[in-house]
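Whiteboard transcription, Tuesday session. T.W. wrote the structure tokens on the left side:
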């Protein structure tokens, strides 16, 4: 039996061209598995369902080899595993066709390696071109990504309030900006300068405590999933929903990452590490990291990778990876 597989990187892209090509190749649409996820990982529901369904003697058909994966290692490992299970593989539109009837053929193996390498090179060059374009735009004074919702005057006023001792809650009330927006745009507080004669004592270092969610918050489409708060007025509902759109990652003392959503009433007040996509500016906020460092902890990097983020060389969200 021939089984088809089609993939695009984001939910906004269209699978029609690949599905039409697979259908014209004689594959029943009921046997075509699809994904709308980045090829940087093989942990894709459609691909995993296909691998779980395929049996010895089946043949997996793709439009091009890079639909299986965008890294040489993952692609070669996947094809090797298929060979070990007696499952064939073929492509439709690559300049080099792969025939699984003789998987031990050296030329066939070379073709797989070349196509996998070309796919990885294409993705690498695309990321480099995007990074170069952003750098050039920044040097010319142009802002990349979506238009900012914060004006220079608002940011200056918010900075003045923060430096004057105002809390984040007071700043949001006076500027009309949401907490998540302030965390992303406010410059970091100046770090305390310590001389060689006055080293920081261990007891001066405070470990941020993870936020504990209530056991049974109030239900509702606009309710905060952590504390259950729901605004009583329409005016407060817009910034409330903007706060709930931000993902918070709480890193505990054991290095575990807990994902949560918070409204203005229950958002943490510890040191916040802002992670932003280099193209659109979206991203989660991280608590539980050491103050004064912008290094992304390993467990947070794992979380980003599992959620289809690109972490090197620039942070890219799933919509731009």
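and on the right, the sequence the group agreed on:
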């Amino acid at each position: 039996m021939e089984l088809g597989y089609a993939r695009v990187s984001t939910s906004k892209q269209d699978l029609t061209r690949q599905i039409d090509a697979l259908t014209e190749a004689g594959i029943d649409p009921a046997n075509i598995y699809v994904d709308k996820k980045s090829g940087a990982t093989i942990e894709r529901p459609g691909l995993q369902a296909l691998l779980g369904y395929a049996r010895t003697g089946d043949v997996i058909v793709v439009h091009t080899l890079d639909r299986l994966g965008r890294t040489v290692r993952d692609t070669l490992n996947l094809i090797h595993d298929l060979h070990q299970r007696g499952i064939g593989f073929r492509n439709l539109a690559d300049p080099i066709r792969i025939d699984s009837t003789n998987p031990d053929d050296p030329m066939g193996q070379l073709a797989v390696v070349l196509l996998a390498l070309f796919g990885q090179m294409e993705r690498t060059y695309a990321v480099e071109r995007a990074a170069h374009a952003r750098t050039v735009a920044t040097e010319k004074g142009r802002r990349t990504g979506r238009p900012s919702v914060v004006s220079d005057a608002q940011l200056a006023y918010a900075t003045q309030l923060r430096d004057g001792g105002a809390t984040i809650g007071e700043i949001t009330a006076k500027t009309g900006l949401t907490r998540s927006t302030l965390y992303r745009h406010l410059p970091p507080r100046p770090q305390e300068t310590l001389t060689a004669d006055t080293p920081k004592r261990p007891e001066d270092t405070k470990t941020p405590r993870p936020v504990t969610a209530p056991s049974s918050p109030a239900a509702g489409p606009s309710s905060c999933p952590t504390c259950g708060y729901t605004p009583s007025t329409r005016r407060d509902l817009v910034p409330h929903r903007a706060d709930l759109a931000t993902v918070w990652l709480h890193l505990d003392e054991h290095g575990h990452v807990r994902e949560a959503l918070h409204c203005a009433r229950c958002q943490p007040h510890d040191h916040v590490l802002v992670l932003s996509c280099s193209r659109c500016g979206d991203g989660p906020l991280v608590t539980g990291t050491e103050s004064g460092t912008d290094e992304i902890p390993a467990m947070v990097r794992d979380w980003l990778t599992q959620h289809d983020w690109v972490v090197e060389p620039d942070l890219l969200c799933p919509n731009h990876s």
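Someone added at the bottom: The first strand starts at residue 2 and ends at 8.
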